[in-house]
Design goal:
0% of the residues lie in helices and 36% in strands. It contains no helices and twelve strands. The strands form four sheets. It has a four-stranded antiparallel sheet with strand order 3-4-5-8, with no helix packed on it. A hairpin with a 5-residue loop joins β4 and β5 (71-77).
Length: 177
Amino acid sequence: ASMMRAQKPDDYGGKTLRLNDDGTAPKDNPFYGRKDANPEVFTMGHRINLGLTMNPWTNEMWSTENAPYGGDEVNILRPGGNYGWSVNEGNHPFRPDRPKGPGEFMPPLVEHPHSDFRSITGGYVFGSERLPELKGAYIYGDYDTGKLWLLKLEASGAGGAHVTEHRQLADTQIRIV
């Protein structure tokens, strides 16, 4: 039953929460004021929401998620977004017979099969002028394989984006955390 918590807006499991400095829920949170939901819920449908980081230039929140069966994924968290767990795992059905929570499932920006990644750890949006070819790219890695990857997006309106570049930067022996 615990795997189904991520699809219930009145449960804190499998969610990203958004709070004010004083611990209260912001009134512009997507579930604020709903009797069937916790007001702190910002996004839902997460298995293991790792590597949360903000892009300081766009205020987008990036997240990575490990996947036990499908592929590890990279997401941008959108207000009220449902990321599918445990009905889906990324773009793949996991337990499609389970009850689905509110909203359409948000597909990951990219997925890595376990042949590439086995324990994605997250990353940061690169902002330095020192390496202009990396500026604005999300740089992230995998704990188990030591691989580092680059992901660049172009805004496509209405809060959407599409991938313009996605490639491996390095294959190291380092356990990236």
